Amino acid sequence: MDRLPADCISRIMAFTSPKDICSSAAVSSAFRSAAESNTLWKTFLPADYREIIAQAPSSSSSSLLNSLSEKALYFHLCDHPLRIHSGNSIIALEKESGRQYIMIAARDLHIMECRLSSWTWESVPNSRFFQVGDLYIEPWFKVKGKIEGRNLSPRTNYAAYLVFKLIVNKSCGCRRLLIRTKFEEGNNRLVQLHPAPKGNPQKRGDGWLEIEMAQIFNNRPIVFRMKKFDDRCRNCGFILRGIQIRPMSPLE
């Protein structure tokens, strides 16, 4: 293999994964040279990565990212999620595979209120977003959102997670707090937030809670809705950070 031109080795490496490329770079100087190829790393960036960069909320961010080599840009997007749209939502790459994932912030969701519901927007510690939605749940609420397929990796299985915190009022008297979710691809679930069923929700490394809402296959824009189902809960707090869509592992 060392006798092959670096370009040929790079083309072979393109059929592996970023993790394999980093490991093979230690094999020999020829492999190390091939692993530095920007043409190689471009194959692991989204096909429309320039358009994704253009979604950055500031021109200075776009200019910085456009100045990076393809390899440097790949690892930058893995380690530093890119703020898009209003600057509240983020998009990033999974380091081992290059698959895209996205977090749609509460600010970028369409929140439909009823007469007695009250959302407030505030900055919260341990959140990457500028603001999160803080709601003291009255009779009901509905949330709608849409994720463009171009912001996710094509032909990839994803799981959608609700990222939130609860402030449970023990004097409320509610026995259950349920969220009904519906994705256009036919995924419909009743998700129980309180009391927490065994194993759910999961606590994240950033201190927030998450619970899976649906499993989806990315081949078109993803439209989803969710609403509170149990109208007896009137005094519990619900802090919505957003909806995260991330690739499923092969074993899921």
Entry keywords:
single chain; 252 residues; alpha+beta; 9-stranded antiparallel sheet; 20% helix; elongated; PP2-like; F-box-like_dom_sf; F-box_dom
Can you describe this structure in just a few lines?
This is F-box protein PP2-B12. InterPro entries: F-box-like_dom_sf (IPR036047), F-box_dom (IPR001810), PP2-like (IPR025886). The chain has 252 residues and is α+β, with helices and mostly antiparallel strands.
Approximate strand percentage: 25-35%
The total domain count is: 3
| The CATH homologous superfamily of the largest domain | Galactose-binding domain-like
Mean pLDDT across all amino acids: 77
Helical fraction equals 10-25%
Helix and strand sequence: HHHHHHHEEEEEEEEEEEEEE
Structural class: alpha+beta
Question: Which stretches of 5+ consecutive residues score pLDDT under 50?
Answer: 135-139
Q: Total helix count?
A: 7
How many runs of DSSP E, i.e. beta strands?
A: 14
Question: Rounded to an integer, what's the Rg over CA atoms?
Answer: 21 Å
Describe the protein's architecture and organization.
The protein has 252 residues and is of the alpha+beta class. It has three domains: 43 residues; 36 residues, no CATH class; 145 residues, Jelly Rolls. The protein is 20% helix and 35% strand. The protein contains seven helices and 14 strands. The strands form two sheets. Strands 1, 2, 3, 5, 6, 8, 11, 12 and 14 form a nine-stranded antiparallel β-sheet that branches. A five-stranded antiparallel β-sheet has the order 4-7-13-9-10, with no helix packed on it. A hairpin with a 4-residue loop joins strand 9 and strand 10. The radius of gyration is 21 Å and the shape is elongated. The two termini are 36 Å apart. About 2% of the residues have low confidence. InterPro entries: F-box-like_dom_sf, F-box_dom, PP2-like. This is F-box protein PP2-B12.
